[in-house]
Each structure stands twice: as C-alpha cells, then as structure tokens.
Amino acid sequence: MRLALSSSRLVLATLFAGAIAAAAASQVSAQEPRSREPVISVSGEGEASLAPDMAILTLSVVRNGKTAEAALSANSAAMKEVLAALKTDGIADRDIQTSNFSIYPQYRHSEPKNGIIDPPEIIGYEVANTLTLRVRDLQALGGLIDRSVKLGVNQGGQIDFTNDDPDKAVTEARKAAIAEALAKAKTLTEAAGVRLGRIIEISENAIRPMPQQPMMRMAAAKDMAAEAVPIASGENTYRVTVNMTFALEQ
User: Fold this and answer.
1) Does pTM top 0.90 for this prediction?
2) Domains along the chain?
3) Could you tell me which residue, 113 or 47, shows the higher pLDDT?
C-alpha cells in the first residue's frame, strides 16, 4: 500500500516538473526575436496644374452712425443694393453667403486729469456685414468688384482662386507620384543587387494648393478706376506624396 502511494507521488512530481519545463521553454521561445522580412521604403511626389474655374470673393459693407440703429439702417440699405446687383450679374443665391456680421461701439478716451481717468465715452457705432461669394465666371470678376464698390462695398477684396472639381488633376498627380516612387525603388534595388518584391503598403498625402490671394483695400468708390479691376487668376498646382513599402527578394 505504501509502495503504491509512493509511486503515484513520483508520477505526479514528474508530470509537474515536465509541465514547468515546457512552460519555461515556451516562454524562452516567445522571447526569441523572429527574423524580419527585408523591405525597402521609398516615397514619390507628383504634381499637376489646373487653371482655376472659380473664385471665392469676400466683400464687406461697413457703415457708422451715432446710434446702433442709425448705423444698422445705413448698412442694410447699402447691402440691399449690393445683393440686388450681384443677382443681376448672375450670381446664384447658393453662391452668396453672409459670413460675418458685427456691431461695435466706438469709444472716445479722455486724457487723464490729476491721475484720474474717466471711463471711455461711446460716440457712435460701426456695423459691418460681410459676404462670401462663389464667382464661377472669372471673366466677370473684375467688373463685379468695380460695381460692388460703387454700390457701397468699402472693405474686403480677398480672392481665393480654386477649382470646382479638381479630381482629374489630383489623379494625374497620384500617377506621377507612384511612377516616381517605383523608379526610385527599382534604382535602389538594382544598385544593391536584390530584386524588388511585392508591394506591402501604400499611403499618400495630398496637398491642396495654397490659394492665390490678391488683396485690395476698398476705401471708397472714388478711388477706383472707371474700368473693371484687372484680375490675373494664374494656375493652381495640386501635389501628392506617396509612400510605398516593398518586400525584397534575395
């Protein structure tokens, strides 16, 4: 009876020791670094230029008055004329948006007397109403600016030239970026004496063009020339950077 019990204990101890050894071996195996697949990473850049077909224009009407009501009334009257003229010029309602409206008090600050500073006194109000327009006929842009100023626009004039649908240009830029990345990869692998394998990863970074922004300060209609304002739209350049990772075949 005692012999049987001793044998059972011996078997259990052996199994337990074996399990510990197997677990330790598994842990050591998991910690061993796996061989890394050789790869090569390259990048390519492509660009395509496109003449703009649309301009984003900001125009502001600013009016002052002794009271907020007087300033608002004068501003609203001028803005109504500007909006009517814009629609007459063919600007659709969907392309006209009020992007800013503000009413600010104007203060007069008195000089300190005997070290005492009186509170600032409100002497009037300024009302500003800003429109953002999408002008789809660039040929009409200069004349539109000229007429708007004569009708009461006296601030703004920022122009962003853009494209309504730049997808074709971006596609061409992508193709050029891929071609450049492939050419780099082939050159590097040939020089290193290895073969280019399968594509492992591709990523891109598309950069929209910085908008061209002619700026003008619209002070008064009398400062503007009688003819339409000359405008040069130039081109927009779309850039795409592509990152590619390839496997290497020895």
Assistant:
1) no
2) 39-49+168-207+242-249 (3.30.110.170), 52-163+211-232 (3.30.70.2970)
3) 47
